[in-house]
Write a structure and sequence with these properties.
Blueprint: E1 2-7, H1 10-13, H2 18-34, E2 40-46, H3 51-54, E3 62-65, H4 74-87, E4 92-95, E5 106-110, H5 114-118, H6 124-135, E6 139-141, H7 144-153, H8 179-189, E7 195-198, H9 209-217, E8 228-231, H10 239-248, E9 253-255, H11 263-269, E10 272-275, H12 284-291, E11 296-298, H13 304-308, E12 316-318, H14 324-337, H15 343-353, H16 358-369, H17 380-384
Parallel strand pairs: 1-2, 1-4, 2-3, 4-5, 5-6, 7-8, 7-10, 8-9, 10-11, 11-12
Helix pairs in contact: 2-16, 8-11, 9-14, 11-12
Length: 391
């Protein structure tokens, strides 16, 4: 019997991000596969509330409640995970987010290397990630860009093309959306005007503040752009932001909170997606928008280019991400063009990122269960200060 232990820790941290979506889809596929898979069992550790996975009626994955994770107590947690895995006679352990099980083989999982690129690794919370990455030998990734960054920042990691698992698009994201659903969505959120969709934080590496920089330099009294900006997530909007956008966009700026099932309609109803991100592990919103025939303005940075490889050239516009005037000009030009992205692009996106990954993922875990090594104990010293054992 091969026993796999998966730490569902990420659901304790954030149940609604792209990473949680990745794991929810993957776990559902694994649960179906286990119905026919003999000689394999999977234990899923559930921490904190984690309502998404606590309330999922898995038929074959075994749910085990486990202690809440606090990075200050990382060493104790890693040792407790090791003891549990030994009790379960685990063949391999994989975490959804940077935890280790000492004394059993571990396989890593990487999403992005934004903290490394931005110089945030001195933060004690990110120190847990550094310990994790330096302790492992094999690491799976969600894109070629992430796999490349993994081997660049952590040369101890082995990342092969077989270890790339693109986040699968959920089946409901490719369903046809009729005019009635769009009208109902617009009525619910009072979006009775053309709008550009924005996803993610306005500042930082998501870089949406680039647009505000351009508006600040736009002459006061300029003719308003007949468009609204609708943000689906990110930082709270300040009064200054609302005033700035209302001066230059006819319908101003609003932020709405959407469920995952509403995101496809959000993109289908939008004129375009404005996504000037400079660093991405995968870039879910770009794939989701193109799947709904929503044209995209983006940088093509890091992994985003891997998605755009499947899009027709007229379905997106690349900007540098460093020039606000360029970004604003691209937005105005794309809006006035009023052209949807092609059905052919949507079909290629669906084929490339809509396929199931569960079978290949399970096979790769079984392949690596043997050659995977125990976490390197040399990294334990770096963990001591996090555990309150050293000043």
């Amino acid at each position: 019997m091969t026993t796999i232990v998966i730490d569902g820790i990420f659901f304790q941290i954030n149940e609604w991000s792209g990473i949680s979506k990745f794991w929810m889809t993957l776990l559902a596929e694994l649960d179906l596969i286990l119905e026919d898979e003999q000689g394999v069992r999977i234990f899923l550790l559930v921490r904190g509330e984690s309502n998404n996975i606590r309330n999922t009626p898995f038929r074959h994955i075994h749910i085990l409640p486990f202690s809440y994770f606090d990075p200050v107590c990382a060493l104790s947690d890693f040792e407790a995970l090791g003891r549990l895995c030994n009790q379960l006679e685990a063949s391999v352990f994989i975490s959804s987010y940077y935890t280790l099980a000492y004394g059993v083989p571990n396989i890593g999982m990487s999403y992005d290397f934004i903290p490394e690129a931005l110089g945030f690794m001195a933060n004690y919370g990110w120190k847990v990630k550094e310990i994790y990455m330096r302790s492992l030998k094999h690491c799976l990734s969600i894109s070629e860009a992430s796999a490349h960054a993994a081997s660049l920042y952590y040369p101890n990691l082995e990342c092969s093309p077989k270890d790339i698992f693109y986040p699968p698009l959920a089946p409901d994201e490719s369903q046809a959306i009729d005019s009635g659903a769009i009208q109902a969505f617009r009525a619910k959120y009072r979006l009775r005007y053309p709008y550009a969709a924005v996803v993610g934080h306005r500042d930082g590496y998501k870089n949406v503040g680039l647009l505000a920089d351009a508006l600040l330099k736009r002459p006061v009294g300029s003719k308003k752009i007949a468009l609204g900006i609708v943000a689906s997530s990110g930082e709270p909007l300040s009064p200054a932001d609302l005033e700035l956008y209302s001066q230059h966009f006819q319908f101003g700026l609003v932020r709405i909170k959407l469920s995952s099932t509403e995101m496809p309609v959000f993109f289908r109803a939008a004129e375009l997606l404005f996504y000037p991100s400079l660093l991405e592990g995968f870039g879910y919103p770009v794939a989701e928008a193109l799947l709904q025939c929503c044209p995209v303005i983006t940088t093509g940075a890091t992994s985003i280019g891997e998605i755009l490889n499947y899009a027709d050239p007229y379905d997106y516009q690349l900007i540098s991400g460093h020039d606000g005037a360029e970004a604003l000009d691209a937005l105005i030009r794309m809006f006035h063009r009023r052209r949807r992205s092609s059905a052919e692009t949507a079909q290629r996106i669906q084929i490339a990122f809509g396929r199931q990954q569960g079978g290949r993922f399970l096979n790769r875990l079984l392949e690596l269960a043997g050659p995977s090594t125990l976490p390197r104990t040399g990294e334990l010293e770096a963990c001591l200060s996090l555990d309150g054992l050293l000043a």
